[in-house]
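User: Quick one: structure for sequence A, then sequence B.

Assistant: Sequence A:
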Amino acid sequence: MFTIPEKRFYRAFQRPKGFKTFNVVAGESDLWIAVPETEYREEIKKEILSTLVSIREQIKAFGEKNPEFLKSLTPFNLPAFIPEVVRVMGEASKRVGVGPMAGVAGAVNLFIGRKLKELGFSQFIIENGGDLYINVERSVVVSFFPKNPKLSGKLGVELPPGEWGVSTSSSKIGHSLSLGRTDLATVIGKDPVVSDCSATYLGNSRSVEEARERVERLMEFNRGALALIDGKFVVAGDLKLVRLTQK
């Protein structure tokens, strides 16, 4: 149902200045969260864990009654009365044209972000299996880690202040299902569930030409997208790419 746990090596590079970071884990869901140091309090871990468990239980319960929801690679026709997290996943997947589970990480991030706002946090960064939900008051740089060692950690994108969903899919890294041949497929938008579904859609590209067609379509409802396939980058939208030097 959820992505199989794996070593998240990229977390060694996540050190946002002025933020306190912590992890919350429930089953296969392993979240890395950053909030302002001045706003952090230890008891929020219990609140976030409770929310994470609730989100997972709602998806699991719906999936047990509707097993096709968990397996479908195309949009799923949702019944009228369903948990909101399921509805959000279904609507995003229909918009993009993929199965609803393509948006599960983004949906978890969205609802955890809502809980953080409810708890009074002015800013946060949530990372869930490489998918990000960012709400910040200053610009941030997000790094890319494709399998190619010549490129891993050497390229990033600078995002302006605001709320962003940054999602990545790959046929070469991770355990999530990909039907394409991309080394990296990253999509950035305002909605973390839509960007998650969009990354799967772009990651399913099987050629440079197909990736070009898909990134153009994704610009209807995302800010920007980047794919690395057959050693070539395909980029679209409003992205400020930056070269990085690891310390």
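Sequence B:
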Amino acid sequence: MFMSDPVYIERNGAIATVVLNNPDKLNALSYGMWMRLGEIVRELEADDGVRCIVLRGAGEQAFAAGADISEFDKMRANARVAKDYGDKIEGAMRAVAECRHPTVAMIHGVCVGGGLEIASQCDLRICGASSRFGIPINKLGLVVGYGEMAALVDLVGRATALEILLEGRVFGAEEAKQKGLVNRVVADDQVTTEALAAAARIAAGAPLVARWHKKFARRLADPRALTEAERDEGYACFDTEDYRIGFNAFLAKQKPQFKGK
């Protein structure tokens, strides 16, 4: 990957950082960026060596300031072409939401529109004190589609999601924390440190356990009753090598070195 790419990866061992790279436009997402984001996350999901994915915007001014509106006269000129564009957006967001590896959104500065929709797909969101949030799409006369809205409703509930969408207001980090949009608010100069520390803590844990926890949490959002096989999967960890490694390390008062097996 090259730092001139619209989306690129920085790799540090088991932690992969995916960078949205359009800093001149506050990392507003072009069609190509949406496409590449989905491709990259799927590539990383297939990599057993990855234990955590961090998503961030290039620089420290913005996570992402939504979609690149300058493309709308072409990409959203009418309902037919807008549907294809929307399908691509939803595909990229599904890639993040359904990724088996844990994901952390490192949020510097502006996180609005499509940027907030991407962040809402992540498992953890850590932002700076001066970060700004919102989905002011009503000012464009556009709707947030079902696929784009689902994660926001799951995250903050129907009432708060509607408050965000109906008012179209941009608000600060503390209010975002109160609404449940972010897990942690830290000083602006500590966002990178704290997000990478969280990723390191995740990567130090048993990777199979992290993937199971993500799977179980996703399944519990489904109102159907759990099957016996699904319940039994909660005990599969006891047959893993990582369980033996973790158990023995605990007894020896040592740091476990998990293998993902």
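The first helix runs from residue 31 to 45. The radius of gyration is 19 Å.

User: Thanks, that's what I needed.
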